[in-house]
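REVIEWER CHECKLIST
Item 1: Sequence provided? yes
Item 2: Single chain? yes
Item 3: Sequence as submitted:
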Amino acid sequence: MKKNKLKSMTITEASDYFDDHDIFESEDFQEVTDIKIKLQKKKYVGVNMQLFKKIRNKARKLHISEDALIQKWLKEKVG
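Item 4: Structure as written out by the authors:
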């Protein structure tokens, strides 16, 4: 089977290409044989909904997620 080399193309060109070709025909394709993932364990804690709404409002004002804000506060408090 002849291999096709993919070049830079627009989304429309890519769509047309993959209508007629299999992704595995690309010369750049390599099968993944070894993946290592290190997952961090997390513990979830319940928070009163009224308190969470205050946290959410504060996080929005700071343009960060609620999770990031809570993590920041806990690191400051606990160390």
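Item 5: Key structural point noted by reviewer: The first helix runs from residue 11 to 20.
Item 6: Recommendation: ____
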